[in-house]
Write a structure and sequence with these properties.
single chain; 460 residues; alpha/beta; Rossmann fold; Helicase, Ruva Protein, domain 3; five-stranded parallel sheet; 19 helices
């Protein structure tokens, strides 16, 4: 009798036993019946092959000298809660059968067994697996549709809708995404949106600001450390990459990382493993990485401040967020949402804006983007005693009419790009009270870049 030809949809079965004869006979039997069998000699080999193969079904002996079948069962269920695990034993008891079921075994079969009995159990397990996978996929698709229609980040302008469509396209994949844009444009909002629409939505979304911690502490937070690896390391600690296993890890301001940290991040992306600080063995991780920066990383590469190989690993999908001044149509929607959220937090009725106040918000260029708009409205809610917020409750920088034009009478009719840039930089500096660090942040450039530009203009 000719065995059926295997196909791509045939169930992959991992057989774990410490007897070579049983492994060989089961492998031949399953192959002849259209399954795709893989074998592991002993429990320890079974654990290694679990991570490597990600099988559809696991068929394992219970009593093995190195690692027991119950341990294989536990590891298989931890790696994939939907995988059916069938336990085989020559010494079955009611107590052991109950323990196997309590541990999550799909079936418990006693040796010796008839081939047709085992094949019936395997076919049922394959159907069970398929139904579980289809059910999970259906639930995720329903969640994705619900979130796409009701949980979209706020905005109706064309630049913003283009961003959302791109985010929705890449979300179901496992591709690394690099999100760029000025400070305050909503990079973490988009990262969370991508996670919510992904297949990892039922697992953790973790984030870290890479510019907020010194190098030594950042590496410990990212990769973990072992006891005694540095002063204060009194016990082993898992890193955030490990904590985000099966989920999504968002690296904000990745352009702030040092060359040493960049090398280690590159290893994670290439090898899908981390080495805790002070450790010698790598730990496998299954984490989707999203990263964000307000820096021009290609310019940083030219200056030697960022690794080109890491950039190309991160920049698989690029999502650029437009500044708020390029999406003015979104300001009324954002303002309404921020006022509603403030009312919810304060347990009071939502306030609204009068026409003059809304007009002022629409006319202001918002160098701090959405974050600055939210802070301005929070201030207005606190200062306004009326239900309708007027211009007087808005920050002075938003409402004042500037006497000094951006281009003076002496400027050419068609100003150069440098003249426009210089005028804009001075305008932001004026808004920030001359504070160059805050001005650089609003401009989305390094303070060193701002100082160089001012020196070139002769205004340092």
């Amino acid at each position: 009798m000719t065995p059926p030809a295997p196909n791509e949809d045939a169930p992959r079965v991992l057989i774990v036993d410490d007897e070579t004869g049983i492994l060989d006979s089961l492998r031949i039997l399953l192959k002849n019946e259209g399954f795709v069998p893989f074998t592991a000699h002993g429990g320890r080999a079974g654990l290694e092959r679990l991570a490597e193969l990600r099988p559809d079904i696991v068929l394992t002996d219970v009593r093995m000298p190195d690692v027991t079948g119950v341990q294989v069962l536990s590891a298989a269920r931890q790696a994939d809660p939907d995988v059916p695990v069938i336990l085989m034993t020559a010494q079955a008891t009611l107590q052991s059968a109950m323990q196997a079921v309590n541990e999550g075994a799909y079936y418990y079969i006693q040796k010796p067994f008839r081939n047709d009995e085992l094949l019936t159990i395997l076919r049922r397990a394959a159907e069970h697996r398929l139904l579980r996978v289809e059910n999970t996929s259906l639930k995720q698709e329903i969640k994705r549709r619900d979130r796409t229609t009701s949980g979209r980040p706020i905005g109706r302008s064309k630049p913003w809708l283009d961003v959302l469509r791109l985010a929705e396209t890449v979300a179901p994949t496992d591709s690394t995404v690099l999100i760029t844009g000025e400070s305050g444009t909503g990079k973490e909002v988009i990262a969370r949106y991508i996670h919510e629409l992904s297949t990892r939505t039922d697992h953790s979304f973790l984030s870290i600001n890479c510019g907020a911690l010194p190098e030594s502490l950042l590496e410990s937070e990212l990769f973990g450390h072992v006891k005694g690896s540095f002063t204060g390391a009194v016990k082993d600690k898992s890193g955030l990459f490990t904590a985000a296993n099966k989920g999504t890890f968002f690296l904000d301001e990745i352009g702030e990382t040092t060359p040493s940290t960049q090398v280690k991040l590159l290893r994670v992306l290439q090898q899908r493993e981390v080495i805790p600080v002070g450790a010698t063995e790598a730990l496998a991780v299954d984490t989707r990485v999203l990263a964000a920066t307000n820096r021009d990383l290609e310019e940083e590469i030219k200056r030697g401040g960022f690794r080109a190989d890491l950039f190309y690993r991160l920049n698989v999908i690029a999502v650029h967020l437009p500044p708020l001044r390029q999406r003015q149509d979104d300001i009324p929607l954002l303002a309404e949402a921020f006022l509603a959220r403030s009312a919810t937090l304060r347990h009071e009725a939502a306030k609204s804006l009068d026409d003059d106040a809304l007009g002022a918000l629409m006319a202001y260029p918002w160098p701090g983007n959405v974050r600055e708009l939210e802070n301005a409205l929070e201030r207005a809610v606190i200062l306004s005693s009326r239900e309708i917020i007027g211009v007087d409750a808005l920050p002075e920088r938003v409402t004042e009419r500037r006497a000094e034009p951006l281009v003076t009478e002496r400027a050419p009719i068609s100003p150069t790009l440098e003249a426009i840039e210089r005028a804009y930089i001075h305008w932001v500096l004026q808004n920030e009270g001359g504070n160059k660090s805050r001005a650089a942040e609003m401009l989305g450039i390094d303070p060193s870049t701002l100082y160089r530009k001012l020196a070139r203009y002769g205004d340092a």
